[in-house]
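User: My collaborator sent over this chain with a note saying "see what the structure looks like." That's all I know about it. Can you take a look?
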Amino acid sequence: MDTTSRAGHPLPYDTYREAIARETLRFTEAVDGADPTSAVPSCPDWTLADLTHHVGALQRWFCALLTRLVQEPPRSRDVELGLPGSPAGYPGWVAAGVPAVAAVLRDTDPGAPMWAWGEDQHARFWARRMLFETLVHRVDAERAVGLEPDVDPALAADGVDEFLVNLPYAGLFAPGVRELRGDGETIAFRCADTGEEWRVRLDADGFRPLPPAADGAAGTGPCTAAVSGTAADLLLLLYGRRSHKEPLFDVSGETAVLDHWFAHTAF
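Assistant: Without extra context I'll predict from the sequence alone. Here is the result:
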């Protein structure tokens, strides 16, 4: 599997298709046999049953969008789920959906134009989005049952990119993003293990990712604040599963700017 990536450049489409299947099965392995009423600390007020229902329903919803190649925001999120009568059956229900998800992704032209809430208005947006929804929730599930998660560095780095590229469009369901403004401050997110760097600039009218260096290497210009860690830890940081105040991150510059960022980017 080719997982070579540069900041700002998505991975090959087949990588997403294959990784979704793997991550989904890893998710089901984590929750299968666990108490469905167990709390999920990284998803406040959710139980394992809630989390498992969310993953299975979301994958089926994304597949419905891809099958129809919707051209405008859907007015309804209703989709036939075939949900088991008991939460104990949810893990098997999620696993049973893996072949159907794989078939939809295999049969869909990744370059087909379609509506998406993020930057890339093509079918491939949803494959990339489905992967990181599943991967992050797999980590949530493993932590909830006492396992220590691991995340492939190349996938994690691509997840950092996917998050930052689409965040400016997330105000629809993350209102705090609309209030994320500044006076020209720049924040750098640096992957210590892959050498990639992403920068965002906060302006009076909002924020935007800055173009990556041509070779994907870390930038050389000054930044207001920077946070460095492994790709996996950065991914979980951006998703609110870690704190930039943890000692595993190397933080420099004005920490108040980072506080401002993370106060407005949770979703």
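A starting point for your reply to your collaborator: Confidence is low (pLDDT under 50) at residues 1-7.
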